[in-house]
Amino acid sequence: MGTMEEKPLLGLGKLVSSLGEVYKSGRTRDLSWRQSQLKGLIRLLTEKEEEILDVLHHDLGKHRTEAFRDEVGVLVKSVKNTLQNLQKWAAPEKAQTPLVSFPATALVVPEPLGVVLIFSCWNLPLGLALEPVSGALAAGNAVVLKPSELAPSTAAFLAANIPRYLDSEAVKVVQGGPEVGEQLMEHRWDKVLFTGSARVGRMIMTKAAKHLTPVALELGSKCPCIVDWLDSKRDSQVAVNRIAGAKWSTCAGQACIAIDYILVEEQFAPILIELLKSTLERFFTKPEYMARILNEKQFRRLGSLLESHKVARSVVHGGAMDPKTLIVEPTILLNPPLDSDIMTEEIFGPILPVITVRKIEDSIEFVNSKPKPLAIYAFTGNEKLKERIIKETSSGSVTFNDAIVQVYMYAPSCLSDRYGLESLPFGGIGQSGFGQYHGKYSFEMFSHKKAVLKRSFLIEFMFRYPPWDGSKLGMLRHVFRYDYVSLFLALLGLRRR
Amino acid sequence: MEDARSWAAELRGRFEEGLTRAAEWRAAQLRGLLRMATEMEAEMCDALHADLAKPRTEACLHEISLIKSSCLFALKNLKKWMKPQKVQAKLMTFPSAARITAEPLGVVLIISAWNYPLLLSLDPVIGALAAGNAVVLKPSEVAPATSSLLAELLPRFVDGRCVKVVQGGVPETTALLEQKWDKIFYTGNSQVGRIVMTAAAKHLTPVVLELGGKCPLVIDSTVDLHVAAKRIAAGKWGCNNGQACIAPDFIITTSSFAPKLIEELKKVLGKFYGKDPLGSADLSRIVNSNHFNRLKTLMDEEMVFEKIVFGGQMDAYQLKIAPTILLDVPLDSAIMREEIFGPFLPIITVDKINECFGLINSMSKPLAAYLFSRNSKLQDKFERSISAGGMLLNDTSIHVTNALPSRPDQGSFGTQGRPKECEI
User: Which keywords accompany this UniProt record (chain B) (predicted)?
Assistant: First the structure.
């Protein structure tokens, strides 16, 4: 056969085929099975809450309150919502049929895709794993979850507990690093969801292409936050609270929808920066209120972003980094060079560049000069500006004046709020990815909407069939124009076809 | 390569200027396409006849009328589709308002197929323009007359600054695939589908793949046989002589019913195409000699040729093959492993009709699955157990004439394609 080096398959072939068998048996399609899995997830999240908060703290230094808010609380809410709506989402929808096909019924029937593979990321290691898993199960699929090895305690937790709370034959956790991910992608899946970097996203999609496996990619981006002058002092403070929460209270800025950088008019920049500084002082009275940087590699990456002389000079607050604790303190920059790495790459950390523009409207052009982001934020009372942002920019989503969940007075966040709005789809565009999920969109991401048309033998129109002649063509024209009267008359021979 | 890059850049510039976004512009393009389909009907039928010997009625029924309906449907619904949808905001975020706003992706590349070269080019173009995108269309070079016609007509009827037709074969397509697009819509075979998706992966471009499949048709004895036979014949041979992704590929029926079905099909075929089907103007030809030879090879396989129960006539000069029915070819023969895409109709018999499920589910998921039966239990089981892009009971093909998600979501999945989510 040749001298091909056999890569160790890690028993994955068997795993994939056993899941295929389970799916074929039909068990995952039953509504009652799906409901039991969702209930199992809720029990896992509630019964094991303490352990979950421990592992998230272990992997990321995430404060228990932040972890609860962003990964447990929001997920329980989401799964309960899915459970409540499952029957409705899974029900066939009627579609219209044209009169000429009477009698006929047309339905769009959601059905599961089969066996799906979900890769989750390290920064929200529980949420980014279990939210899509809940959607895949709700849609009736068998699932393989590959959690990120960079959050090892959470990965181990998932591997230990998923078999306990869910159907262990239909939902599998596969642990390991990039080589395991590559091995998994050698197989065919009915869908793959990948959350992570564009570089790996490309590799996933290229491998998926060999099997024509459909993919959804949730990638990163630089999410801009446009800050306009707000008339009232109170509004300004609220805005700054929300900005601070969105940057530093979400895994220390290591989140795909964290605010990456700010755009503000030059005259207001000093005020904004002062407000940010004072808010930071109020919020982060203890270092443990902010998550740490994931690991040394990420820590060094962030350090290198601040290395260049011109960037270092632009630091107006913070900048301290402790390699022992992997803590980078909340840092604000004012106008670092636009061609520096910190302004061309996704920061994914607690460093916030503030870029000034002459007029706030210039922000639009600035945002458009960069790849399309996952989210655009804008704090403004100016309705015209809002409309322009919506019309002239493109992003996964736009949030104005970011309604932030005030769970606790000192640590608001826009993240769980966005997750909380289950009726909005979440996903990227352009370089930030494709495919949307959350809530009903998670269900749909892992479903196929099958078109089913049922006809009767009762009524037959001969003009559908050859041999062709001009009269048949004439009648077909009437059909396509929904001109039933002319058709009827033609059929009766009372009209020239 | 240079051309492809400059076209992509030019269209991107136009898109970024905002030319394609206004509802008026979009509606004007749709009206332009509608006018084109109306005023140029004769030219279109001629091109389709040159490329495929497609009978005029088929050309009008399956391509031109559908293009017109698609334009009208889009025009009628454009405002509604463009309107932002309000969504429920939760108590947790009170006070807030949330909505979903549709926006164009940007510049999209549409690569179409040769068998319905007008429809499979223009239908996705209609969708792309209605959504406010700039478009590059690459029609199939295997249908050259239609490709030239599209290249000539589109600039006359739509805004040539934002809609380009690029003609050519593999080198031109490869050059286009090297560029970055905001979406690629490909209709064709799985092999090229893989190439398209691999190229798209480099730029993280979402793709929609409309591929092929072996569409099974199950029929039991509860049917009105005469009507069923006509609908089956129309769906198989009345659609480009079997060269259609949704044509029934093969039939499964009981061994007791098969002889009756075959007799009725023979009668119907006689009515449709006469005693000399190769001479009938109502039968499309095979598109080119490559495909003719491919089909001939399928037929020539030992154990297949001897299973012909009707038809089998071929004319290499005219590239015509007559409607052909085969009974119980071996399941591992090439004709049962590959998508036929031609006028051969194998009938596979089973003892009990329920055995069809095992057989169908042992194959890749098809684009369409058909069941002819009045047995409601069988219908329910079919709907539940068979996974296919679309499903039709007691008829063939017409589910794509409806405004069901049979277009553009007519996608199936499995090795046969991917669903729209790649709206992906």
Answer: NAD, Oxidoreductase
